[in-house]
Amino acid sequence: MTDNITTAEESPEHILELRHLTMKDFADIKELMDVVYAQAGGAWTPKEYKAQISTFPDGQICIEDKGKVVAAAFSVIVDYDQFGDKHTYNEVTGDAYLTTHDPNGDVLYGVDIFVSPEYRGMRLGQRLYEARKELCRNLNLKSIIAGGRIPNYSKHAQDMSPYEYIERVKSKDIYDPTLTFQISNGFEVKQVLKAYLPEDKASLGYATLLQWHNIYYDAEKPNLIGGVKSTARIGCVQWQMRYFENVDELLQQVEYFVDALSDYKCDVALFPEFFNAPLMGLSPSDTSIDAIWHLATYTEEILTAMSHLAVSYNINIIAGSMPVIEDDELYNISYLCHRDGQVEKQPKLHPTPHEKEDWIMKGGNQLTAFETDFGKIGILICYDVEFPELARILSEQEMQVLFVPFWTDTKNGYLRVRRCAQARAIENECYVAIAGSVGNLPKVDNVDIQYGQTAVFSPSDFAFPHDAIVSETTPNTEMTLIVDLDFDKLTKLQNEGSVRNYLDRRRDLYRVEWIGNSDE
């Protein structure tokens, strides 16, 4: 029998990938530029594009969706003193051929950035800006400088000068699609450029000279796009159970937390087990089994929405866990919504006695170590973390962070999860993050109280906090927990720790082996 316990779409709506441009992408770039710059000359020529790719390939990046380029950013390294603040677009870009490129220069100059109109609102421009900043840091350049259009200025030119217009945009009295976006991404306006792009009629030829300072200039340089990260920032949601009238209200609360964690540049947002349980109160039946099976009818809608949030807010989301009905059986599944649009799943393998008896819930039969853009992770839902074999198997697959969405009603139930999570961190020399819910659900039978305290645990050695607790929340209070993790410390621990659980394991005497087969 084939294991197929998921309602996730086999083919996600979007599969986004950040990568470098190649010559094969020219047809997509031309199509995109002809739309975006229909009133400003359209696309570059093949000759110009080839020169850009050949001259500075690392600086030309894009986001593709299922093989088609939907956003792109171009840049060049220059010796900025040769141009100064008074320059035109053609001067600094070598008429778009990038003949000004200087590998020994000190500034990354933004040549262009554009996003397909069909993908606006998904924050792809922000991703490209973050990639540029990463490139700037990696190359140890002083700053990013760019000339920015002010396309809404033509609507206000009779009433104010470009200087006044810029100040009004900075104070948020006026919205400009380009300048507002650049300011929100950490760029500051140095001055106004005249005749920067004379053909830009919407900006009346004016542009802003923008600068982003690399505060890590001369610091140790991280890897370029796609490299292995040595750190990760994780965000955990301590979720307040409250009554919701409908799915939209619940998703509004979800988006609030996703937005907040995204603003703090978190790589991942972890929600608790059964965070959508308040919707059980909408069941027409009063029995707990009917309520949980009714809750499962909302899962696909919620999953689709959370996957969209992951893409649009540029943050991976572990969607706690939700009930799923497959072949007339009920399962509890955690979904990993990647920020590139992919969705993966981890079922709960061990339903509790309550879940088996009162909800007729079945356990899944797959265990996965997931590859993410911030490291290799595992997910164990609540009770599953109390079985050390599972974390050991994930550890053998080089898991760096174990995420545990949980839902407990009493303090002793919570402490079982907490103590076992701490043990898993020490045994397997990894970080463990747990996130739970708090508050009351008086209208939901058998699940009316919650006790929880969200926390992140580390191994116990000198490189880590003295109590092996990286951070933790206030118990029973709705809040978020944001923690930076250092993976280099895990590597050092494995080789130089006071004790070395991974290296000292007696594999000649014993082992933990996965004998399940998802195709059975």
TrEMBL record:
Alphabetical list of CDD domains matching this protein: NAT_SF, nitrilase_Rim1_like
Keywords (A to Z) from UniProt: Acyltransferase, Transferase
Keyword Protein biosynthesis (UniProt): no
Transferase keyword on record: yes
Domain N-acetyltransferase: 16-211
A Pfam family the protein falls into: CN_hydrolase
Top-rank EC class of the record's enzyme: transferase
Annotated ranges, domain CN hydrolase: 232-487
GO MF term list: acyltransferase activity
EC number(s) reported in the record: 2.3.1.-
Protein name as it appears in the record: GNAT family N-acetyltransferase
